[in-house]
Every structure is written in C-alpha cells, then in structure tokens.
C-alpha cells in the first residue's frame, strides 16, 4: 500500500482533469484534485458552453426577421445584453456545481488553490505539501495576447462573457474559430464588427471552399475583414476609444478582442523541479500514453497542445485513468477527429480536406451539393449551404466530409461515423433519404 497521501493528484479541474479524477477514483484510486479558479475549466466556465449559448441567443436576430415570412409578427422585439449575459453566467454556475457534485459523488478530494509541482511525487497547494504516487497535469491553456505596445487595453474571449455593455464598434484580432464565432455573435447583436488578421486566410485547416463560403456570407452580413494587418500598437484615447495602428492605417474602435490562439498553462507550475520537459510553446511533452519526461507525471488536454478540443481532453483523461488505474491500457486515436465552427452559419468538417486528399491520393472524386435550404427560400434569404464529400478514387472510400449551413455540426457528427468507419460512397448512396431535410443531400450527392 502506498505511503503517500494520494494515489493520484490532478492539477486542474477542467474537462480532462475531472474525467481522469472521476474514473481513476471509480477504479479504486485515492484521488485529489486542485483548482485555482472554478470547477469546470475552459469549456464550462469561459469556452464552448457559454459561447454556444451566446450563439443561440444571436440566432434570434435573424429568426425574428424571418418569422414574418412565416406569418408571425413579433411587435417591439429588442435585444437586452445584460439579460442574456446574466442568464448564461447563471447556467455556467449551475454546470460548475454539477461537476463539483460529480467529484464529490466519486469521493475525490477537492482542494481550492494553485498547485505547484515540487518534485516527481509532490505538490504544494498554498502552504501545504502533498505527496502522490502519480501526478496529472491538466491545467489547460489561456488566450494569447500579443506583446505590441498598448495591447493590454484589449480583451480576450474570457472577458467577452462579462461585458458590462455591448460596444458600438469592435475589432477582433485573429482568423481562427474563436475569432469567427464571436464576430458572428456580436454582429447579430448589432455591433459593428471588423475582423483583422495577420495573414490573408481565415480558418486554416478547414476546406478552402467551405471557409471561402463563410467569408462571403460574413461579408454579406456586414462583418468587415482586414487581412495582412498585424497590430503595431494600440492607443487608448481620452474618450475611452481605442485606436489600433496597423500597416494599412489606424482604425478606431470601442473594444478590441484578441482571438490569436491559446498558450498552454505551464508558467510557474514548477515542472522543472521534476524534470518535466516542455516545448517551445510551453506545452508538456508527452508520449502516446500521456506520460511526460518524468515517469510519475502525466498530462492531458490543452496543456499538451496536441488537439485543443474538449472531447479530446475527455478521451485523454479517460485513457489515462483506464491505463494507469483500470488495468485497461488505452490509447487515444487522433485520426478523423470531427470539429465545428459555430459561426453564422456554422461549418463543420472531418477527415481530409480536398487539398489534403489530392496530395495524399492523387486521384480523388469530390461530390458536392450547393443549395439554398428550404427555410431560407421562404424567408427570402439568399444564404446557400454547401456540402462536400471527398472520396479516394481507387478504393471508393470516403476520406473527408465538409459542410457549411444551418445545423451543419449536428449533421456532420453522424457523417463522421461513415468517415471513421471507412465506408464507401456507394454505401452512402444506398441509404434512403429522409425527406424533406437538409441532411438528405448527403445521400443524394452527385
């Protein structure tokens, strides 16, 4: 029997850490977890969950307009930001409580405060030294803020959920999913949004046709884009407005939001005391079993900078617990991970893009449907959806699927099963369509 305080000590109570702690405890381990902020981590507290609730709220802007074509007349419809903000934050508090309850039900000891590694088998929380057979780093990542002069006057996605009032003009710096999601949300709330990006491409890694379609639709909705526009400096004016200086000239705004990537939370964690190596971005280097360069210390989730997605962190936490304490060696398969951008409209993809497939296989077939959803037709909305399925010509296997349009992430989740399973296009064709739906386009692709 171990002479140390715990079999497992987890640093960070986000999605990956909570799953690892809960399952390890269920396997019979004595587990403690430390969290310096709130139980739930990025996803629950200041990420996917509150963001998706804002996305839902933003959709009403267009739905209320479209409703008139369907015979509904909503008088004096107006948006109140504090109501949505406070309701979203209340839901976040409720979910954090459920995560806390889950840990309690599994008899996981919870410690409030910052934990620092002091050795291969020891951590310090406040003035208390604690020992453990195994330590798991699950501290996640934080928004990156450029070091250009004046950038401290900007906010990040963390603060976006707590704005006292909506700005009239907002600049969003970045071209990834966070930038495009918040651009869509605030635009629907009536904010004049300009997205500025260092490069000339948004959403790198997604299929080129799909991201180009989002760019076209976003511009039609009134979102402005400034490409090849790195920030030189930010000046706060006496009026409270911000002047953002870029090579193409200065732009004034009322709020500047940075969505320029996320940095692993390893600074000041004491990892060097245990010989844990981090890469040039500060991410914990791990092997395929989540083990760091110190045999007794592991890491999962965004702090490893492998795939920064909540479901991936959860899978890694589960695999860690099953491997170390469940006598069930498990490795996470990082092949064919589906992902989505909850923009307006949303997009989603899984597997290889068209460009990647051509590089990998040479000969590919691309099946596509470019159509106006039935709801948009009656609403007199010209927005078109685009679905693409990429097929390896030699094997006829579906190697990628990408789409943009209403409910694209919901539809893509099921199609991801087909890509993961290596199904052939002919097997998709054999499925009878559910009519009338948007999803039926996937079994009618030509």
Quick tags:
446 residues, 5-stranded parallel beta sheet, FAD/NAD(P)-binding domain, 7-stranded mixed beta sheet, 3 domains, alpha/beta, Enolase-like, domain 1, single chain
Description:
- The protein is of the alpha/beta class and 446 residues long.
- It has three domains: 6-142 and 263-324, FAD/NAD(P)-binding domain; 151-260, FAD/NAD(P)-binding domain (3-Layer(bba) Sandwich), CATH 3.50.50; 345-443, Enolase-like, domain 1, CATH 3.30.390.30.
- The protein has helices spanning 15-26, 41-46, 48-66, 81-105, 157-160, 177-188, 208-220, 310-324, 354-361, 374-378, 408-421, 425-429; strands at 6-11, 31-35, 109-112, 115-119, 122-125, 128-137, 141-143, 155-156, 169-173, 192-196, 224-226, 233-236, 242-246, 249-253, 255-258, 262-264, 297-299, 339-341, 347-351, 364-371, 385-392, 398-404.
- It is globular.
- The N and C termini lie far apart (64 Å).
- 42% of the residues are buried.
Total tally of structural domains = 3
Share of helix, binned: 25-40%
Extended strand count: 22
Give the name of the CATH architecture of the largest domain: 3-Layer(bba) Sandwich
What's this entry about, in short?
The protein is of the alpha/beta class and 446 residues long. The chain has helices at residues 15-26, 41-46, 48-66, 81-105, 157-160, 177-188, 208-220, 310-324, 354-361, 374-378, 408-421, 425-429; strands at residues 6-11, 31-35, 109-112, 115-119, 122-125, 128-137, 141-143, 155-156, 169-173, 192-196, 224-226, 233-236, 242-246, 249-253, 255-258, 262-264, 297-299, 339-341, 347-351, 364-371, 385-392, 398-404.
